[in-house]
Amino acid sequence: MTDLQTSLIAIGSIIVAGVISYNKWQERKARKTVERAFSSPGDDVLMTPSDSQPQSARVEPGFLAGEDASNIESEAIAPVVEHVEAAPTARELPVDELVDCLIPLALEQPVRGDKVLGRIQQLRHVGNKPVHFIGLRDGVEWEPIVHGSLYTALQAGVQLANRTNPLNEIEYSELVMRLRTVADDLGADPDVPDMTHVMQSARALHQFITEFDAQLSVNIQSNSAPWAIHTLLIALEKQGFDLRPEGRLVMPDGEGGVLFSLSTNVTLAADTTSRLTLLLDVPRVAQPHNGFGAMIACARSLAMRMDGTVVDDGNQPLTENALAEIANQVNEFYANMDAADIPAGSVRALRLFS
């Protein structure tokens, strides 16, 4: 039997033992938390996915969504923090008790940031989950680790989930193993949270991401001849689009972020296209930016300038009533994200929906 097989068996045994010992009180508490965070807005063609719709498919004029949150019974988004005082929120920190599993590291004696940075440089990810560290400077204020500061305590944080998947047992075990090596070098003692608790929180957070992973799109169809790509790019630049180095066309939000993106639906080598698609990544755009309204206004302006029609994926013109209904449901979507304490466009949302 290989070391990997032995490790997997050991991990499986821990999980089974933890699940069996998990009591009914904790299940009831978790159920109430989930029902409060993931309360369904009701039957809605935009908020409820079709059984036949692939999760990764783009829908117009509706949302991309995953499983119904009512399927969750005993999992909850909960801070994975054990025996540690929450870091102050007065300044932006790279770890978040709702997004990350926090692991306190008690220090035998104060340590300089230079030494910490040297030890944690190789521990920035496990799998595709980022790992961050903060330190208690001079016993007063938590901050990202920087050169020159003296720290009396440390915390490590690994992101619990992203759009791809939740943190899993293998990734968590890798983190703990590598973190213990770092801790030994720094004279620190890590207080590692229970794996069962961490996995439960990771799955619940990923369920939230799946439930709210929504995108909206509208199309502009040429009414006559296809548009020449060269002429089209000039028109899009005048409309305010930026062509990013990776080839994406995006509409900036004026604050360093993106309101929505645009696809020409052809390869970079193509000379013409007859159809444009504007796409709004709803959870990544803050409600005050009115991403949906801005996208529709842009689509109408382009259609007018380039002799096109704003249509859905079935090539049917989008009516005012349909657009107004979608706008109302976008607002409901934002309200549900706010209720879960993960507002659209917030640092939390940008981290989770990346």
Task: Record the SSE blueprint.
Layout: H1 3-21, H2 24-37, E1 100-112, H3 113-120, E2 125-126, E3 129-137, E4 141-144, E5 150-159, H4 169-186, E6 188-190, H5 195-211, E7 215-222, E8 227-228, H6 229-239, E9 242-243, E10 249-252, E11 258-263, E12 272-273, E13 275-281, H7 291-306, E14 308-311, H8 320-339, H9 347-352
Antiparallel strand pairs: 1-5, 1-6, 2-3, 3-4, 3-5, 7-13, 7-14, 8-12, 9-10, 10-11, 11-13
CATH superfamily heading of the largest domain: ZipA, C-terminal FtsZ-binding domain
Architecture per CATH nomenclature, i.e. the level-2 architecture of the largest domain: 2-Layer Sandwich
Specify the helix fraction band.
25-40%
Mean pLDDT: 81
How many whole angstroms does the radius of gyration measure? 24 Å
The CATH class designation of the largest domain is Alpha Beta
Q: Remind me, CATH topology of the largest domain?
A: Cell Division Protein Zipa, Chain: A
Strand segment tally: 14
Coarse structural class: alpha+beta
Principal-axes geometry comes out as elongated
Overall number of domains: 2
Which band does the percent of strand residues land in? Answer: 15-25%
Tally of DSSP helical segments: 9
- Biggest beta sheet summary: 6 strands, antiparallel
User: Which spans of ≥5 residues are poorly predicted at pLDDT below 50?
Assistant: 14-76, 80-90
What's the helix-strand series? HHEHEEEEHEHEEHEEEEEHEHH
Distance N to C terminus: 38 Å
